[in-house]
Design brief:
7 strands, single chain, 365 residues, alpha+beta, 7-stranded antiparallel β-sheet
């Protein structure tokens, strides 16, 4: 037990050091990118720094596999250079004992990343996206899906419009049973429009079979209502923005994704990509354990043979290969080429089995 606690502490320190360095470099790159993006706009340095800070949780999730691989390599290289692995073997203990603590720590980190850090990153990323759009165009897209349909909001400095559609086609190009409520600068509704269908064409909503009510004090809305076969309403939205928002995995946390998938299905959207993402989140801790075990197996093997020059290269290349295979399998799952469960769970299980094979071969004791 004492040996496992010792290895766990050393492994955590290695992850913290590598993680701090990688996230620090990523923050610098992100801040430079914010400066370049808003160089012609009146955005202060503090606002740019705020955007970078809001993006940190998302950075951690994105770079977590790399941090785990490099941290594992650094940890076992340190043990190899200090001959602690040799001492462990000389004491009659298998080197396999050196992977138990890192595997447990990795699984806990994976669970934390999925259940806690992921929802936190969701909140900060939403705020990051809203501020980015606001700084660029003074326009914020708000989108939500509920059991009553799809809700959109397009807004600017002077006015905003709330849009509700009962359902849509899979491509999110045509919305049916649509209601537009336009609010003026005072915050009071100005017009209400209902239509059988609506679509966005060149920054305009094209409504069919529409009826428009003017909402003003002293005015009878129904008496002054007008009907149109085709009615055009200006739009600050685009189909690409709506599709990106619907297809983004950062819209809903893992705790609410199952319900969100049901609501998307009721609204007429395809949900296969969301289901693949949900399953991939469940498999994430197992995949991280697989990456760490593969990196540990290769590092221990090369260290024991004295091949220091290959100690870093091989685990990193293997880790990136497994990461690429995982993403490729998920793409196949999203396209329906292979079953979703097979696409999501095969890479982590294969990684662990591959690592066990390397470890058994490296540990001749």
């Amino acid at each position: 037990m004492i040996l496992h606690i010792y290895f766990a502490k050393r492994f955590i320190v290695s992850l913290l050091i590598l993680g701090t360095v990688i996230i620090g470099l990523a923050m610098m790159v992100n801040f430079i990118e914010q400066t370049r993006r808003f160089e012609n706009l009146s955005v202060s340095v503090s606002h740019k720094l705020g955007l970078t800070l809001l993006y940190i949780p998302t950075m951690i999730i994105e770079f977590l596999p790399l941090i785990m691989i490099l941290g594992t390599v650094a940890f076992y290289m340190t043990l190899g250079r200090s001959s602690e692995l040799v001492v462990t073997r000389a004491a009659g203990l298998s080197t396999l004992r050196a992977i138990i603590a890192p595997a447990i720590i990795t699984s806990l980190i994976g669970l934390f990343a999925v259940t806690i850090l992921g929802p936190v990153a969701l909140v900060t990323f939403k705020r990051y996206s809203q501020l980015t759009e606001l700084y660029k165009s003074d326009d914020v897209l708000a989108l939500s899906v509920s059991g009553r349909g799809l809700w959109l909001r397009q807004s600017s400095k002077d006015e905003h419009t709330v849009i509700r559609a009962k359902y849509s086609n899979n491509e999110a190009s045509i919305f049916h049973d649509v209601t537009f409520v336009k609010y003026g600068p005072t915050g009071l509704p100005v017009t209400r429009t209902e239509a059988k269908s609506a679509t966005i064409i060149k920054s305009k909503w094209v409504l069919r079979d529409a009826k428009v009510w003017q909402l003003a004090n002293g005015l009878n809305p129904e008496a002054n209502a007008r009907t149109y076969d085709v009615h055009v309403v200006p739009s600050t939205l685009t189909l690409d923005r709506i599709r990106e928002s619907l297809g983004s995995d950062m819209n809903v946390s893992i705790w609410k994704m199952s319900k969100y998938i049901q609501q998307l299905e009721q609204a007429g959207f395809s949900t296969k990509s969301h289901y693949v993402w949900l399953q991939s989140q469940f498999a994430q801790p197992l995949f991280l354990v697989g990456l760490v075990l593969v990196a540990a197996a290769l590092t221990i093997r090369h260290t024991s043979f004295g091949k220091t020059s290959f100690t870093i290269l091989f685990p990193i290349l293997m880790g990136f290969s497994l990461y690429f295979i995982q993403n490729f399998a998920q793409v196949l799952g999203e396209s329906g080429q292979i079953p979703v469960l097979l696409a999501v769970w095969t890479p982590p299980i294969a990684s662990i089995l591959l690592a066990i094979g390397f470890l058994l071969r490296a540990d001749d004791g």
